[in-house]
Known about the structure:
Rossmann fold, 7-stranded mixed sheet, alpha/beta, single chain, binds nicotinamide-adenine-dinucleotide
Amino acid sequence: xxxxxxxxxxxxxxxxxxxxxxxxxxxxxxxxxxxxxxxxxxxxxxxxxxxxxxxxxxxxxxxxxxxxxxxxxxxxxxxxxxxxxxxxxxxxxxxxxxxxxxxxxxxxxxxxxxxxxxxxxxxxxxxxxxxxxxxxxxxxxxxxxxxxxxxxxxxxxxxxxxxxxxxxxxxxxxxxxxxxxxxxxxxxxxxxxxxxxxxxxxxxxxxxxxxxxxxxxxxxxxxxxxxxxxxxxxxxxxxxxxxxxxxxxxxxxxxxxxxxxxxxxxxxxxxxxxxxxxxxxxxxxxxxxxxxxxxxxxxxxxxxxxxxxxxxxxxxxxxxxxxxxxxxxxxxxxxxxxxxxxxxxxxxxxxxxxxxxxxxxxxxxxxxxxxxxxxxxxxxxxxxxxxxxxxxxxxxxxxxxxxxxxxxxxxxxxxxxxxxxxxxxxxxx
Length: 429
Ligand code: NAD
């Protein structure tokens, strides 16, 4: 082996073709021509700083012992402590968590938050376990990753299938282990435990704000725009609510229970109430159920993927009839899908800016916890708007300057900041 084993290889993971880690690596590759001298440090972006795999044994309600696999990946800590959510999903893998952690590095730097990138996950289908069992799994997972998290080290937050209650258990477990109430160890907490006003809907609000800016700069009115959304959970439903409040029509919604279409516009509030009581959108009377695959053929102006990654494949990208794809989810386009959308002239507003509202208000929560002084919801929403509008404009201008996609522009802005921090710190030892 040469003295520089530098060639994009990690012995513990082979990138799945078109999987999230391969997609992330290709995004870094596209950024390289715009990094100048900093490209010398770029290999650091292709290697997570730390990957922790933990075993989570718990006694279930029926007395049996179950074992779960959990992860916490810190992709890059050059600009500050790690920051990124925790996902509970049966398909979570180390490779997926690595990609999600890497996208957090990019997102935090693209918005200029003083954080590195991290992400966590547990391989579990939470719908199959009781509340008591989920609490045990959460607490054991938190204890295990307690080695590397902390208010000034790495700060988890909610993601798919995790919420403020799970954050409360994480905060309590960490606090018991260190012997003092450590509110700043997680964000997305309940208000009574140092949570922030506006956090629950912040990601969806950010999707709207960034979508509004992208539409404005592309001269597309939001009033009357047709919006199609995949995923009607925290992000999708909050974004939908704001688009509808500003005159858009919600023509199609898909979640894990089915797909609904209504050319006149679905009743957003009614659909949200139905999904909350029935666990999904299926059975809602105000729309026509259509086969899931037809979702990608629906005519719309703005398509918002807000469910899971790798949903927009090359084949689906060929069929999409939207002017803008606004990425609420992390990594919803595969590498090939992204290429097809770009080739077809469909504006792709990338996840690393489109869904950055959540981590931005998480940052506000963390700041408020440190100062023990809490802001009003108006203050939070005004500051969120200001940060996202500024970050988006910077990315928009970078794209125009180099004639590149918004995604590559966001990566150029973010990678430059990360690698500059890296270069200024130097290498230890
Ligand atoms: P959530 O669990 O609240 O909602 C997920 C939604 O996706 C649900 O409506 C679910 O039914 C749907 N879904 C799941 N599998 C599906 C499938 N196969 N087909 C169609 N729909 C499916 O999760 P969330 O917090 O809204 O997160 C959604 C996305 O946004 C994820 O990619 C997440 O990483 C990203 N994100 C979330 C936040 C946040 O603050 N919650 C922040 C940034 C990014």
